[in-house]
Amino acid sequence: MAAGRGGRRGLVPLLAFLGVMAYALSMAVVTPALPLIQEGLGTSAAGAAWALTAMMLSAAVATPVIGRLGDLLGPRPVLLVVLAISTAGMVVAASAGSLGPMLAGRVLAGIGGGVFPLAYTIVREVFPPERTASAVGLMSSMLGLGGALSWCIAGPIIDHLGWRWLLWVPVLGLVPGLVLAWWIVPAVGGGKSARIDWWGAVLFAAWLVAALTALTQGMEWGWTSPGVIGLLAAAVVLAVVWLVVEGRVEEPLVDLRLMRRRAIWTANAASLLSGYALMAGGLLFPLLVQLPEETGFGFGGTATQAALLQLPASAGMTVAGMTAGLLDRWVGSRVVLMAGAVLTGAGYAYVALAHEAMWQLYVGGVVRGVGIGLAYAAVANLVMAAVAAGETGAVTGVNTLVRTVGASLGTQASAVIVAASGAAEGGFTLGFAVSAAVMGAVLVLALLAPRRSLC
């Protein structure tokens, strides 16, 4: 049986990409359907929005924990459990007749975020070193591609089949992914006798949920509301307690000493800012396209036109992620990150200055997409190169978490910038300019990163 499974290792890339894409779709697919979910479940706009927020919070908490479990137990058994739970969650959400079951299903589906660190661990164990960077780059670009595809398929599915069928789409990837995982993923790594830091996991989940809830609800509740201030205060206190606990246990959930390595903290900071840049554009571009022409700067486009604008950028992101592996062998991940920062910043700077015609948005968007594809691939390869194979899941789990936080910040900050301007043209110009400046900071971080791995 082991020999047979070893002969199927050539299918591991297909499984990794299928699992990551299915998760990306499940995360993004509810966004186009939020108004219909609100109507179909008889809930408020805020209640429907929690269908997205609940999964994001669950994924943020679960991802680093699952990455650590993958290092301890081996990625294969953990991946099988994660895919099974995520699939069950998507089925519950798609079948839900009220908001409660919908949110419960989305929370379970969010555990699928653990496929990222597990996929990185599997790729590192199975692929030869010269192919690892390319595989990591392609997987890193799947999140953006999944988001773009969700918008493109949303219209036809909703129009002809109904919004519930949109929630069934990720299941079509998760079910075969579960079967393939059982069939082809080799039993590699793991087998350590280390204990799991459950107290660290509980405290980590507590402060992270408090902080992310405050960020995601700030626009609706008000940034100075008692709820937001209370959650932020609780997050700070719980984070301090968590840091104290993690500094004292022998085998922490997150090894703070690892996080202090220059290759890792610079890559994590770059991930935070790159996540901001990805989702800032994910909000600003569609809003600008769909604003009425009467505003003098909007295009009066449909949701489908806004989605089509994202496709070339997503294709560029995917191609750049694949190319990043070849570039990594030639010049190293540090230079790839520098190139990604420059291209993404240039794309945003261009549309900040020129957004009178759709072709300008396409040009700026494609340049931005290529840049983010390079940056995402580079940061993942930087953190993997800085640690031993047995620590891959833990560090890539934290890196994915940081990127998720950055994405949340990008969405919220850009929405605040546009709202503060009264949805005027200056708000969009400022939003694009801020994103360009953010990528300037990524360039500085790339210059600070070590030239080669420390391991």
TrEMBL record:
Entry membrane topology: Multi-pass membrane protein
InterPro entries: MFS, MFS_dom, MFS_trans_sf
Species this protein is from: Actinomadura rugatobispora
Superkingdom, taxonomy of origin: Bacteria
PROSITE patterns in alphabetical order: MFS (PS50850)
Sequence ranges assigned to domain Major facilitator superfamily (MFS) profile in this UniProt record: 12-452
Record flagged with keyword Transcription regulation: no
Places the protein is found: Cell membrane
Transmembrane spans: 12-34, 46-66, 78-97, 103-123, 135-158, 164-184, 196-215, 227-245, 265-289, 309-328, 335-353, 365-389, 401-424, 430-449
Protein keywords: Cell membrane, Membrane, Transmembrane, Transmembrane helix, Transport
Protein's name in the database: MFS transporter
